[in-house]
Structure formats: structure tokens, C-alpha cells
TrEMBL record, chain B:
Keywords (A to Z) from UniProt: ATP-binding, Nucleotide-binding, Transport
InterPro entries reported for this sequence: AAA+_ATPase, ABC_AA/LPS_Transport, ABC_transporter-like_ATP-bd, ABC_transptr_urea_ATP-bd_UrtD, BCA_ABC_TP_C, P-loop_NTPase
All residue ranges annotated as the ABC transporter domain in the record: 21-261
Protein's name according to its UniProt entry: Urea ABC transporter ATP-binding protein UrtD
Gene Ontology MF, one: ATP hydrolysis activity
Source organism: Hwanghaeella grinnelliae
Automatic annotation (TrEMBL), chain C:
Biological process, per Gene Ontology: amino acid transport
Compartment(s): Cell membrane
Gene Ontology molecular functions: transmembrane transporter activity
Name of protein: Urea ABC transporter permease subunit UrtB
InterPro entries, sorted: ABC_transp_permease, ABC_UrtB_bac, BCAA_transport_permease
Membrane-topology descriptor: Multi-pass membrane protein
Bilayer-spanning residue ranges: 265-292, 320-340, 352-370, 404-421, 488-512, 518-537
Signal peptide: 1-33
Gene, per the UniProt record: urtB
One Gene Ontology CC term in the entry: plasma membrane
Keywords from the UniProt entry: Amino-acid transport, Cell membrane, Membrane, Signal, Transmembrane, Transmembrane helix, Transport
Domain of life: Bacteria
Amino acid sequence: MAKAETMTEANTTPRYSSWVLSALTDRTSVSVLGAIGALAIACVLLNQLPESSAFHVPTYMISLFGKYLCYAVLALSVDLVWGYCGILSLGHGAFFALGGYAMGMYLMRQIGDRGVYGHPILPDFMVFLNWEELPWYWYGFDFFPFAMLMVVVAPGALAFVFGWFAFRSRVTGVYLSIITQAMTYALMLAFFQNDMGFGGNNGLTDFKDLMGFDLRSDGVRNWLFLSSAATLAIGYILCRLVTTSRMGKVLIAIRDAESRARFLGYRVEYYKLFVFTLSAMLAGVAGALYVPQVGIINPGEFAPLISIEIVIWVALGGRGYLYGAIVGALVVNIAKSYFTVAFPEIWLFFLGGLFVLVTLFMPRGIVGLVGETIGSAYGSMKGSARRRAEAMGGADD
Amino acid sequence: MTNRKGVTPHEAAKVADGSMLYLDGVTVSFDGFKALNSLSMIIKPGEMRAIIGPNGAGKTTMMDVITGKTRPDLGDVLFDGGVDLTKHDEAAIASMGIGRKFQKPTVFESHSVYDNLILALKQNRTARATLFAMTGKADEDRINELLELTRLTAQRDLLAANLSHGQKQWLEIGMLLAQDPRLLLVDEPAAGMTDAETAETAVLLKEIAKSHSVVVVEHDMDFVRDLDVRVTVLHEGSVLAEGTLDQVSSNDRVIEVYLGR
Amino acid sequence: MSVAALISSLRTGLVTALAALVLAICVTGTAGAQDAASEDALKAALPKLTERSFDVKGQAIKDISTSGDPRALDLLLAIQEGDLYYRKSDDLIVYAADAESGYDIKDALTGEDLGNVGKRKVKKISINNQLRSILKGAIGSLELMSPNPDQRVAAARAMLSNPTADAMPILLTALEKETDPAVRDMLDLAKAALEASIGSVEDRLAAVEIMAGSMNPDVWAILGRLAAKSDGSGSEDETTVGKAAQQALNEIEGQKQVFALVETVYFGLSLGAVLLLAAVGLAITFGVMGVINMAHGEMLMIGAYVTFVVQQLMPNHIEYSLFVAIPAAFVVTGLIGIGLERSVIRVLYGRPLETLLATFGISLFLQQTVRSVFSPLNQPVTTPEWMSGFYEVNGALSLTYNRLYIILFCLIVFAALLLLLRKTPLGLQMRAVTQNRAMASSMGIRTGWVDAMTFGLGSGVAGIGGVALSQLTNVGPNLGQAYIIDSFMVVVFGGVGNLWGTFVGAMSLGVANKFLEPFTGAVVAKIIVLVLIILFIQRRPRGLFALKGRSVEG
């Protein structure tokens, strides 16, 4: 072992800068980051136009876009584990919701004595339940940095503990999917309980301030939107760094032939644990940005349906491509916003149909399909995309 | 823990002194069916051994036991004169220097030939190390050497999925060598190869055996003859005969169960 | 004859026959002369009812009850209900019923219809609390002589719950005549309950002895009253009896706990039966075929909706509706399953994660279809009468019929499925295909057809499960979602590919849930069980009854 390490050191010329630089500056990254930046700046600028202007983007639209961006971050986190490591998590909604609850708890404490019951410390729902004092797990959430730490620590810890048990005992494939689904289902049931101290059915809502600024003001809304865009960009870079590193190669190796990777000496469980936990933290951050923009977090976010919907964003966009996940999240959610208003009856037909059609006819998703069409100009790319998709298709058991 | 003879691992280790691989009384049963029945075998450092036997003789199960995929119900499996392999998992055993080539070639199909070799290269395998790992000059040189040896230089950037069957076999042998193991377990390396490829593979393995201990499981008698090494015949999970190919092929019982058909 | 009547007549037939025999023995030979005497006694007592004095009225009531006239019980009941009046003009005792104006009256003795009279022409025979208690005792004693044994048991039970000293002679008379063992037991208890408060110390102790071990809540109340004196607050005798009563109560408490345990197991098994019915279809599609069908829950849902539709089609024969719904649900969901298999799942064999997603999409599709065709609201499904009610084992334990039938039904379905898989050619082919597809195919088995049939069978069984669920939960578009995770947990917990594993898994999860519930509440119990399963699967990823060997690990 010691010999191997010295060997690695001896022959390695550290070029971390080139790794980071290529993650930032290769063609895909530049396009993705550029698109996020351009969209963010354009929206904020257009929001400043007078309302009479035809190009004015109203603030509620800004928050709506902000919500989509949070979903994109969430999709990114699912793509990292599913697209690159073959872990089909049907419980990522739980990590998202935990991050959201951490943020929600901070926002509840920010209300202070302005609640309906005017209690100086206890949130309204606790007063309503005749609670005498704040439960211990609410301590510290009035302190913003602590709450932000919890946004990543809570989902990260759950993912770590869950993954520790699951990956060590080699629960894989659909079994893992089913128990992640059971996990989020159990959490949903738990959070519905009033005794849990997270507001039960109604969840946490009626937020007022964020760091002392009025949540409903245009300024805060714009900042939240920009933060979501920045988080998406950072999340993308982070995932890009992981997937372009040698670890990224190991992850794909695990996805395609797990036991072969073991026989090469890779401790598969630790790789999975790392990437699962990282992904959960990313999902938590997405949830934390989501909550102030929609103004509520309730146990419904733990519903198994939500988690599985995230998977279809990724599948539609194109799993195994980070920007595919982003595209998928945006496309499905924009469609959802449109359908649920215009034809609420049809939305579930549409979503259900999407699941079937994507798995049957678009295994590479939109990105793969577009890539193939465009890629015919770059002959070899096309072949590689197809091989890649086929390899993925066969490697899931 | 003691084996069926009441020998403690410590005592067994003394017997195993100086061996590369030491199997004693290894028994594995699946729902009553004994895949390995008190199998004993010693491989010396630098030795190449061919293992033959009819289907179901326990060859693959034996490999599984050595590489940590299957835990034996009974018996000692010692590596390098004393390391108890039954107490380690696949990754740890691989890191100790036992490499395995599967019966069905398994390479990482969505990686290029080059990346396959990078992954196999002897290096720190922890998650943290691979996250920050950079490929240095020495690694490049070693990979180029292996590409040369396995005649895949031209396919360097091709996805492994696009290789021919024989090329995949060779890539897997290349990956095995990249690990720089002390003991190679090679399961049917010639399966699905043309005669010419088979002969070349035999040459390659003999070359490898100069600096490594090798265990080859093979069906192809011509190939085993080409290897020209000591042969162990497995039957129903235990050793039926051992010796040169000529010796075992004149053994009555071997003829009865295997060759005579 | 309806199903309900059939079942209840089976239950009561024997008892009725016995009662008729007893009545015949009692009545024979005592008719004639006695009838005349009792009628006289009744006639003498009636006028006293019109008196103002409650004491006189009380005497009259006692006289009526002891008269032995068959009309006595109806009279006393009418007094109790406030339906007995007397005509002011001639003090004639009459039954009065509310009419549009005034009352319709009938002569209380002859039953002769006396037409409609104004409200002021008659006066109600009023009673007070004291009379009410006398009435209750009197009615009770009359009912003790009733020809119907059920009524006699009820009367004895009434005396037990309200023991009065003057009921003793009636009890003794009744005991002398009584031959029905069930009635005798109840009478013995009632007698003991009386003696426990009025007899000598020895009598009382003996009475407590008789009551010890009874599973009747009224007896517990009596013992409780006696035991209250065990602290020495009453006389010395009372203390002695009180202590004995306390000891009897302790014994009873121990027995009650045993019965409570039995009840919990019963609840657990019935929940297990529900889980098994929900999961057994999945045990075939997922366990045997390895197809992960997320639309399984919707098969349950559709089965429940088939029940609803069947009941809509035959509103006058709800009793039979389930017997029509079961095959109907099997066929409908089976066909849907075959359609699914042929169109979508077939394409995705060997790609479990894709199958999971596609079938989930189908589940959304089916849900929305049901929502559009019916409504997003729950649909009312009627429970046939023969499934409602309960069988009272004793005061501490009663078993509800619907749970009992669910357990039975689940056992039948499970046994039928086992038979089908073990003994029929289809079952043989299914096992062959799942074990070695290539070999089965080369032996001439049409593997595609077997796949479709197997999936159809799994879906059809899920539909049958849905019929059962329709009797227990709300039938709405979301019914399936509530059960899909539980179903998967059961199958995975029991061990994939093993029907017995599913059986044991379902039953043990059901029982575990019900044992946890008293301590934690239903939802938390469910959460705990889920978490335990998650941990369990991580200890034994292949479930309770895992198939072992090289092939499954590959």
C-alpha cells in the first residue's frame, strides 16, 4: 500500500489547475454556464423595466423561474447519482425537503413575535398545540449561518447513514430504489405528525423576512432568483469536477460493471457513499432556495410521487449528461406549469405518457436525441453517444 | 476458528510458509449442493498452474473464494504464506495483489481502452485519492507499454464496447497486468478466440508467468498443452489429480470423468 | 333466500329446534285450569294501575308479573314505553298509539280496537324512577320464562347487570326449569351476583368463587363494587368478601390480558391478510418474473372500482355482489395486465430501472383515467350485511366478521395460487420459463405467451385483492398508491421469488404493526415498521427466505 502511494506521488505532476480549468472552460461548460448567466441577468434586468413595457418580466415570474432553477439543481443531484453511478434514488425529494425544512425553520424563527398569536419565541403552530417551549432541535435556527449549515448537514447526514447501511450490505438496483422510496414515504408520514414539531399537515409557512429583508419585496425576490442561478452554476461546476476526475471514471465503471470495479480493488461502497451524500447535500441546498421563493414547505414534498418525478426530468433531459438534467427539469416543469393551468385533467396523462415514451423510445433523452441529430456532422460523436446509451441501458441490473 | 482438522490458522500459516496461495479443506455449499468439497491446493511463488475440470467441477467457485466473492463454509485460504483471505473483501484482496480475469470478458464498455487501463493501473484506490488523481508521465509510459503488449495501441481511444471479442480478452489481460498483481487468476482466457489468437494468448501468458504467479482455468486442451505447466484436475469440488498434462491424461480416473468422454 | 339469512339460519337453526322442544315440555299439561286463575289475577291487578299512589301501582306491577298470564309481558313493556293509558270515562286500561289527531286505542286485555279518541279522553299510566326499577325487574323475570332462549339469556344478563334482591325467587324458579346450558350459565352468574351482595359470608364467598373467571363485564362491575370494600372501609365480612373479589378480579385481569393478546394477534393477522392480498400479485410479477411493476397498486385500485361498478349494476343484490366482483375484477385487471405486458413491459425485459419508470408512468395514466371516468372523489362501496357484525366470544373478546372473512379469503386465494403454480401445466411452464428461459423456449414452451399469462395472473390476483380492499378502505383513485410501498416491502421482506416468504412476511408485518400500535399510535407504528424493514433489507438484502446460490448472485 505504502509503496503504491509513493509511486503515485513520484510519477504525478499535479495539474489541478488544468482539471479545474477544463471543467470550467470546455465547450459544454461554457455553454451551460453562459446560458445560466445570460438567463439570470436578462430576467433581473427585464424585471427592472416599467410594468407598461412589453418586455417587463413581473416579479412573480422571477420567482417562478427561481423555482425552476431550484428544480434544475435537484435534477443535477439526481443525475450525479443515477446518470454517473447507476444509483436510482427514488428518495431525493426527501433530501430536498429536509434542506427546505431547515430553511423554513430559520424563516419561522425570523417571524419572531409577528405571528398570529404574537408569541415572542414559539411559532404559531406550536402555540396552537399548547407547547410550552421550543423543542431542542429548533435551537440555533434563528442564527442564519447555523441554519445554512443544517441545510447541507441534515440531508447529508441522512444520506450518509442511509447509504452507509445500504451500500455496505450491497443493496443495489431496484431494491435500493424501493427502499429509498420507503425512506421518503416514512419521512412523509413522520412529518405529517403534529408531534414531530415541524408544523404537521400545514408545514411551515407565513414567512416574513430573510436576514431582516422583507421576503415579498422585489429586491429579495431578485436576489433569491440570482442565488438560485448561482447555485445552479456552482452545482454544475462541482458535478463537472467530480465527473471529469478519475473518480468520475470510477463512478461510471461502477455503474457499468460494479463487481468488476470491486475486483480491481475499488471500494465501491465508499464511492457510492461519497457521491450519494454529496448529491443529497446539493438537493438540500436546492430545497433551501426553493422554500423562500414558494413561501411554504410541507410534508407533501416528501411524497414518493415527487421523488420519482425528479427522475423523469433527468430521464427526459438525458441522464449521464449534466446539462441534460438541467434541460429536463426546465422542460418538464414549464410544461407542468402550463398544463396544470390550461388542462389540469391532462397533466397526469401527459406525465404518465412521458414516463413510458422516454423509457421506450428516448433512452438518451432530449440531449441524446438532439446530440445524435447534430452529431451526424461529427461522425464519431454519434457512435459514441449511441454506445454510451446502450452500455447504460444494459448495466442497470 | 479452526478448520476440519482442528488446525488453527496460525498453525496452518506455518504449513503455508513460502507459498503464494494455500487452500486447505475449502468447502462451499449452496443449499446442500457442495460446489467445493474439501479442496486443497498450493501454488508456489512464480508458479503457473493450469486448472482443468468438467463443468460444475468448482473452478469458478474456487476463484470466487480466492477473490473474496464467496465465503467458504470451512477451510483455510491463505495468501502469501499467511494472509487469511476469508477475512477480507474483494477490494482488499485485489489491493493485496490478486488480479482476476473473468470467464466472460468484463471491461468497462463506456470507457475508452485508455481509461480502462487507467482505472486498472496500480494506484491509491481510495475515493479521496481518485478525486484528485492526476495522470503523470510514468503512468502514461506504463499504459503505452501495456497497449503495445496487448496490441491495442491503435484502439487507444476507442470505446471498449467497440472492441472485438478477442480484443476485449486482451484488454482484460492488459488491465490485469496494469494492476501489477502478484497472483493472477485467469478464467478461460482463450474462450471465443481464433486458433491464432489462442496461440498468441498462450505466448503472452507464458511471458507474464516469468514475473508473476498465475492460475489459469481452461477447457481448451491444446491451449493447456501450449502452456506446458503443472495441471490440476478438479472434479466435484475437489482435486482429482495433479501433475503434468501427460501424467493426468493417463490417470484412469481422470479419463473416466473428463477426458475419456 | 339471501346469503345473510342462510348464514344466520345455520347459526341459529339448532338452537331454535332445542328451544321448541323445551317449550313443549314446559307448556304441556299445565294449560287449562291455570290459565283461568292467571287471567283472574291479571284482571284484579289492572285497575290498581289507575290509582294515583305509586306504591299501589308498584304492587299492581308485581301482581301482573306474577300472574302468569301470557299478556303480562306486553303490558309491562307498554307501561315502560309509556304506551299504556286508561280511558277516563270507564277506567278501562288501553294501549294507545299516536294518530293524526288524538290516539288510536285498543283494549289491553282483549286487544279489541276501540277507535280513535281525543287526547283528553285518556290518561297515561305514569311511572317514577322507583316504578321503573320495579318494572325492569318484573320484565326481566317474565322474559326469563320466555320460550325464546336468546331472550332468556338476555333477561338473565339484564338481571346480572342490575341485581335486585326481589329477583331472587324468580331466578330460582327459572333455574329449576331451565335446561339450556347457555341460559343456565347466565342464570348461575346472575344468582351469584345477587348472593354476593345479600347472602351470608360463606354464600358470598361461594358466589365470588362462581363469578371468578367470568368474562362478563357486568360481573367485573359487581366484583369491582365488592372489591372496593377490601380496604376495610366496610364491615369485617365485607372486607373478607372484598379481598376474595379483588383476587377474582386479578385473575380475570390476567385472563383479559390473554384475550387482549389474542385480539391483537387477530387484528395483526387480518392486517397481514390485507397486506398479503395486496402483495401476492406482486409476489408473482416481481417475485417470480422479476418485473418491477409500479402500476401494481393501480391494479388493486381497479379491482376495487370493479366492485363498485358491479354493485351499481346489481343494486338489489348487494349480498351477492362480491361473488360477481371477484371473477370480474380478476378478468378485468388480468386483461389490463396482459395488455401492459404485451405493449410495454415486454420491450423492457432485463432493464429493471426502465421498467420501474415506465410502469410508474402507466400507474399515473390509470389513475387519471379513473379520475376522469368516475371522479376524483371516493366512491361508496357497500359492505354486504353478512360481512358486518361481530362474533362475541366473551366480554373481553369479540371478532368482527369482516376481518374474519378477509383472513379466510386471503387463505383461499393463497392456497389457490399455490395449487395453480404447483399443479397446473401453466404453473409448470411459468416456473420453467423463470428458471431457464432459453431451455424452456427450446423445449417448445411459448415463452412470450407464458410471460403474458404470468403477468396477467399477477395482475388478476391484484384485482381480487382490490375487491377485498374495497371492503376495508375508501375506494378512490389514490387507493393503489397507499398500498404499493407496503406491497413491495412485504415481497422484499419475505424474500423475492418465494410465495411462502411473502405469506410469512405479510403476516409478521401485520402482527408487528398491531403490536406496536398501542404504544406508538398507528402512524408511528407504520413508520417504525418501515424503518425496521429498511434496516432488515440492509442486513439481508435478499429477504427472509432468500434463494441461495451462484445463479441469484450473478
